[in-house]
């Protein structure tokens, strides 16, 4: 059986992840892989209910962080880990980097507390000791917040985060950069200001570099 592959997709709102996630799913399926596409917050019935709260209700940064980690716990247990154990490719629209970016960067919530919650929720026993369950690859669609704001203009009614200021998204982007510099091997940073075709070539290249697609 194939080994499971866990890939996450990150970026500020408006960076344009969604179409590329669908295209990558098709590319893996064409190569004979079973793909589970999911998202965070969300991905299970319970986590989707928590998502609706996080995206629509006013709350402080700690409550937000606890709810996204609660939804992640359920998502890992009921969806991501079983799919990986079945040898599937899991494509997840956002994961823990988004918590560091939005709650840590955007809201200014304590980075160390987030790191502690990350360990609490994601540590697993491996053959050589405890390991952090995290994506093997994170495709980061990096975009200037001003360009992202232009792209979001006129789109569907914005949720709580999409309505945030340019200053908020500048901090979110800086936090993504910090996560990237803490684990450069895990990230593929893609210039999301390029044409859709050029972005797609970079997405494919990141996956082919790891020999996951021909
Ligand atoms: P989406 O619109 O890309 O599906 O993402 C949902 C929103 O939730 C997005 O604005 C980022 C935010 N978010 C957090 O604030 N913390 C998190 O941990 C995650 C996964 C998402």
Topology:
Layout: E1 5-10, H1 18-30, E2 35-39, H2 45-56, H3 61-85, E3 89-93, H4 96-106, H5 111-122, E4 123-126, E5 129-132, E6 137-142, H6 145-152, H7 166-182, E7 187-191, H8 196-209
Parallel strand pairs: 1-3, 1-6, 2-3, 6-7
Antiparallel strand pairs: 4-5
The structure holds thymidine-5'-phosphate (TMP).
Thymidine-5'-phosphate (TMP) is lined by residues 13, 39-41, 55, 68, 93-94, 98-99, 102-103, 161.
Describe the protein in words:
By secondary structure, the chain is α/β, with parallel strands linked by helices. It has a single domain (5-208), classed as 3-Layer(aba) Sandwich (Rossmann fold), CATH 3.40.50.300. 52% of the residues lie in helices and 16% in strands. It has helices at 18-30, 45-56, 61-85, 96-106, 111-122, 145-152, 166-182, 196-209; strands at 5-10, 35-39, 89-93, 123-126, 129-132, 137-142, 187-191. Helix 2 runs antiparallel to helix 3, helix 4 packs antiparallel against helix 5 and helix 4 (96-106) packs across helix 7. The chain starts with a strand and ends in a 5-residue tail after the last helix. The protein binds thymidine-5'-phosphate. Thymidine-5'-phosphate (TMP) binds next to helix 4.
